[in-house]
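Two records follow; treat each independently.
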Amino acid sequence: MADFDVVIRAGTIADGTGGSLRTGDIGIRDGLVVAVGDVDTSAHRTIDADGLLVAPGWVDIHTHYDGQATWDTQLTPSSWHGVTTVVMGNCGVGFAPVRKRDHNALVELMEGVEDIPGTALHEGLSWEWESFAQYLDEIEARPHDVDLAAQVPHGALRLYVMGDRGAAGAAATEDDIMLMGRIAREAIAAGAVGFTTSRTKNHKTSTGAYTPTLRAEAAELIGIASEIGRGNKGVLQVVSDFESPIDEMAMLRSMMSESGRPLSVSLAQNHRAADAWRRIVTVIEQCNSDGLEMRAQVAVRPIGILIGLQATINPLSESATYRAVAAEHVELSKRVEQLREPSVRAKVLSEVSPKTRTHWGRQASFVLGERPNYEPDPTTSIPAIAARNNVEPMELLYDEIARGDGTALIYVPIINFAHGNLDHVEEMLQHPWCIPGLSDGGAHVGTICDASFPTTLLQHWGRDRPLGTLPIELLVAQQTCNTARAMGFTDRGALLPGMRADINVIDMEALSVEPPTMAFDLPAGGKRLLQRARGYRHTLVRGVETYAEGEFTGALPGRLVRG
C-alpha cells in the first residue's frame, strides 16, 4: 500500500509561517499534511512541483457568499484564485436569523449594500431556515469547492429582534440588547465564527435607507459583545466611517475589553483625508500593547469601480438617446454599432449633464485592457490623455466604452489611490496588525470585481511592482496563516505536519489576473462580474484537487467550518 495519498515533490515551499523559502516535498494523507521535507516514500499520486511555488490555500476572511452558498456549489470567482476557505457574513449583512416577514427587507439590504441583484436573491434563496443554526445546517447540506465559515450579521439580528424599530434605526432597549446578545452567542455556539456590524453611511438598502445598524448606540454594541464574550468564542468585525475617531475607537476598545474577543476593522485610504488611516493604525497598536487583540483588514490594491455598457454604473445612461438605443438594441453588438454612428454619439454626449461631464473630467479613470494594471501611472488616465490631445474627457470615455464589442471596462480607483500610487498599501501589508481582507467576493457583482485580491497580492507585490516588491514568504503568510489566526482557525494556513492539506501549487512566472467579464449566470439571469486567473497549476482542498490548470475538477470537498 502507498504511504501517502498525494506527494507534492521538489516545490519551493512557502509554508505560511513567514519562514524562509525552501525546496522540499509535501506528503498528504487523509486530508492532512503529514510530512514536509524529503519524502522518500510511495504515493497514490505524485505532483511534480519542480520550479513551482507551493503554498497553503488562501484564506479570504471578507466575502459575501451568504446567498450564493445556498444555491451554488462553486464559489467562483474566489475559488479560481486559489482561495480554499472563505468567511462570509461581513459588514453586518446576511440572511439569518430571519422571520418570514423580513425576507424582503434582508434582500433589499443585501441588494443595496452589496450590489447583488434582488431578483437573483428572491429566486435563489430557499428560506428554509429561521435561526442562524438552521441557516448553518442549510449551508452544510451542500458540498462546495471551498470551505465556508459564517458570521452573525447585526443587520439581520436587529430586524429579527426589533422588527420595524430595528429597521428604522431606533435605539435598542435593554431587553433588545440582552436578546440580541443571547441569540448571537447561541449562533456562535452553533458554529458561527463571529459577529459583524456596519457603521458607514455608504451602506444603504436598495430603497435608499441607511443600514439598520448605522445608528446603533455604543451600549448596544458593547452589550452584544459582552454577551458573546460569555461563550468565550468568536471574533468581532466592524466597518465604520470613523467620523468621530476618538469616540469610535473608544467604543471598539470597550467591545473588546468587555467581551475578551478579538476585533477587526476595515481600513483603507480615504481620498478626502489621505493620511487619516495612520491615526487608526496608531490606536490599533495601542490596543494591542494594552492586551486587546485588534487588527485592520486592508485591501491589497485600490478598491475601484468598473464602468461600461454592461456594468451597473454607466455614465451614458442619463442620456435619453442612449436609453432609447439600449431599449431598442438589447443585443450588445447592435447597441455598440448604433452608438458609433456620429449623429448618435453627438446626441448622447449633448445630453450628458454638465455636472457629469465635470465629474468625469476630474475623476481618474483608466482603460483596464487585456492586462489589468491595478497601480496605473496617473499620466495614463483618461483625463490626462484627453488633456494631452485637447479633447473633452467625456468624449474619450464614450469612445473607450463603445470600443470593440462593447464589453470594455473602465477602472476607477475610488479608495487607496489618493496619491496615484500604492506606497501606503505597502506600509499596511507589512504592518504586524494589518491583514489582507475586503475582497468582497460574491458582492458588488455589477460594479467591483476584487475577489482576485489574493492573486494580485502575489503577482503585483511579489513579482511585478516596478517600485519594489515584497518577500514572497511575507505575502503568503499574510494571506494564509495570519488571516486564519485572525479568525481563530488553528487547523489551516500553514504547511506543517497535522495541518489541513489546503494547498496551492503556483507557476509564479505565469501568474496573472485576466480581465473581468460580465456573466449572466445568477438565478433569474442576474449578472455578475467574473475574473479568472492564470498560473494556479493545482489547488487542493483537504488533500483533494479541486482545480487543475485553472479548470474545475468536479471535486467538492469543501465543507462548513464551525467555529
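The next record belongs to a different protein.
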Amino acid sequence: MGLLATREKILLFVYQNKEPVLRALSWLRTLASLLVLTVFLYYYGFPHPPERLNLLVGITKSIFGFFVLSYVIRVIFAIHSWQYIRNSLFEAALIVLLLFDIISVFLFGFNALENLFLRLNIENFTPFYILFIQSYLLLLVGLEVTKVSTSIPSIKLKPATTFIYSFLLLLLIGTGLLMLPEMTTAKGSMPFIDALFTAVSAACVTGLAVVDTATYFTFKGHLVILLLFQLGGIGILTFATFFALFLKKGVGISHQAMIRDFMSEDSLFNAKGMLRQIVVFTLLIESIGAFLLYLLWDVNAPFYDDTGEMIFQSVFHAISAFCNAGFSLMSNGLNQDYLQNAYILHIVIGVLIIFGSLGFPAMRDIFGIKNIRARMAAPWKRWKLSTRIAVWASFALIIFGMVVFYLLEYNGVLAGKSSFERFVIAFFQSVTTRTAGFNTVAIGALSTPTAILFIFLMFIGASSGSTGGGIKTSTFVLIFLSVITTIRGKKSLELGGRSISFDLLNKAFTIFIFSATYILMGTFFLAYFEPKMSVLDLVFEQVSAFCTVGLTRGITPDLSTPSKLILISSMYIGRVGTLTLAFALASRVDSTNYRYPKAHILVG
C-alpha cells in the first residue's frame, strides 16, 4: 500500500501542477533557444582567446543539460508518456545519442564520440565535439521555431504580406550575419550597405556583388551566403511548413493558403502535397549536381588536391545553379582559365539551371511518381497547360537565345572556337542569361546587340513557381498570344484547347506594365546618380537586378550608395514578385457587383 499511495501522490502532483510547470518550461526553453543563438553567433562571429572559448563551451554544455532535463520533465508531465515519446522521436533520438555518450564516460571510462572520431583518424577531437553539440542545440532551436511557425496563420495578415515579411526577416538576419568580423577576410565588420546588398542579392537569388565573393569572405561567410540563397530560392515559408509537417504538428487551411499563393497551385490539397516534393526534388537534384561537379572539376583548379574544398565547391555551385543564384567562389565566375574548356561541367550547370527555372509545379507534373504512373496507364493524358507553357516557352527561348548569340558573337567572343565549343558557350549563355547569372565569357566584352538580347531574355526570366525571376514565361506567352489574338480579330484568347480568362490576362499585363515601369524608373535614377556611366550598362544592371539574374557589365562595385539602394529595392521587389507586392499593398474592394455603361475610346 505504501508504494501505491506514493504513486498516487506523484500522479496527483503531476496532474495539479502540469499546466504551470509546462507553461514555465515553455518560457524557459524560449529563453534558452535565444541564448543558444546568441552564444552560437558570438562563438563563430568574433575572434576569441582560448579562455573565452572555454567559457562559451561551458555555457553551451549547460544549455544542453537544460534541454535534456526539460525533455525529461515534459515526458513525466505528459498524460501518456510513451505516446509523447513516439510523437517526438526525432528530439528523443538526439537526446539519447548524447546521453549515450555521457553514460559511456561514467560506465566504461571512454568517450564514445571521441573514440569514433579517433577511428576516423580525426585527432583534433574537441572542435568537432563542440560543433556536434552546437549543431544538436541548433536542431532543437529549429524544432522550437517550426512549432511557432504553425501559429503564423493566426496573425491577421494576408498570405502575400506574410510572404513579404518572411523575406524581410531573412534579409535582416543575413545582413547581421555578414557583418560579423569572422565572416570576412578584411579587418573589422563589413560595411552595412555592402552587407545589406550582399544579403539581398543572395536571398533574392540574384548574384550581383559589390565585393569579390571568392576572396572577401571567409569559409563562414561563404556558408552564410549559401544558406541565404538556398532559403531564398525555395522560400523560407516552404522550409518552415515542411518541417512542421515532418514533426506531424499539422498545417491549417490558412497556412496552406499561404503556400498555395506562393507556389501558384490551384488547390489547397495540391499545395500541401507539393511541400514534401519540393524539398525532395531540391535535395535530390542538388545532390546529383554536386556529385557530377565533383567528378568534373579540372585538374588545374587550385582546390583540386583538397578533398574538403572540392566537396564544398561542388555543393556551393550546385545549389547556386539550381536556385538560379549565380554566386560563385571564383573571382571571375566560371570564366576562369582552368574552367573555360570544361564544357561538360558547363552543360551540367546549365541543366541544373534549367531544372531550377522550370518551376516546382511543372517539375511535380513531369516527374511526380503518381503523375508518371497515371500517364503510363493513360498515355493520352497530357501535362497541365501551365507545365506545357513552362517547358515549351523555356525550350523556345533557349534555342532563340542560343542561335542569336551564336550569330552575333561568331566573330566576337566565339572567335577561334570550334563548332562544339561555340555551341556549348551559346547554349550556356542563353540558359544562364534568363535568370541564373553565371558567365563563361566576359559580359563587358559583348557587343551592343548581344547586350540588348540579354536584356530581353533577362526581362522574360524563368517560369512561375520557380527559383528564378523576371516577368515569367507564362506572362510573356499570354501577352504575346493576346497581341496575336487582337491582330486576328478574335473575341477570346485560346491556348492548348483552353480559353484564357480575362482575369489572367489582366494579371499578365499588370505584371508587364509594373515591371517595365519600375525598370524605367530605376534606370532613370541610376542615370541621375551615375552620370559618367554608360546608359546601356545602367539599363543592363537594373534589368539584371530587378529580374534577379545577376549578370553585370562590370559596374556593380563602382556604384555609389544611392545606386546600391536602388538595386537593393529592385532585387527585393523583383524576387517577392510584383503581383504579390501589389496584392499585399492593395486595399480590398468592398463590392464589384456593378457595371458601368460601355465606353468607346480611340486607340492607336
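Discussion point: The chain has a mean pLDDT of 80. How would you locate this feature using only the C-alpha cell line?
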